Amino acid sequence: MAKVCPQQGGAEVESATWLKRLAWQARRLKRETLALYLASRDRRTPWYAKVWLALVVAYALSPIDLVPDFVPVLGYLDDVILVPLGIWLGLRMVPPEVMADARAAAEACRAAPTRLRIWGTVIVVCLWLLALVVCGLAVYRLLQAVWAQPIGAAPCEPAFRLGLSRYVSSA
Prior knowledge:
Layout: E1 4-5, E2 11-12, H1 18-40, H2 47-61, H3 74-93, H4 96-111, H5 115-147, H6 157-161
Helix pairs in contact: 1-2, 1-4, 2-3
């Protein structure tokens, strides 16, 4: 059975390009994740489903993985396989009527941008800009301290602390 993509005017997903299918799946996963969060907060959801959903969300957001990400192929397999598998199992544990209500609430949340979402976006962008400015100032000061040394002078203290003494000429 072919899945229908509402963003494509009801066109079947199989006839779309792989990039459009991937984008549709990403939007669907985002909607389902929000719906699962809302379903986990519902009192009609069984306790074991709430525990499972909390574990899946904690694992998905945790910086600690079963297999570290720097391992060439296996590092990302847990993110590609375990998290979607956990979401799939969570969908099976939540009663259908609760999921239907949660999906409707997720669509309502997604349709109307709230002040909280707008402020959250502003705060995240400001934090990234602040981190960029701090890193830029640190690099600028380091380069200023290294370049300010006259040729033949003893290396500056920041160069020693950062292991850059071999790049600074000394007499």
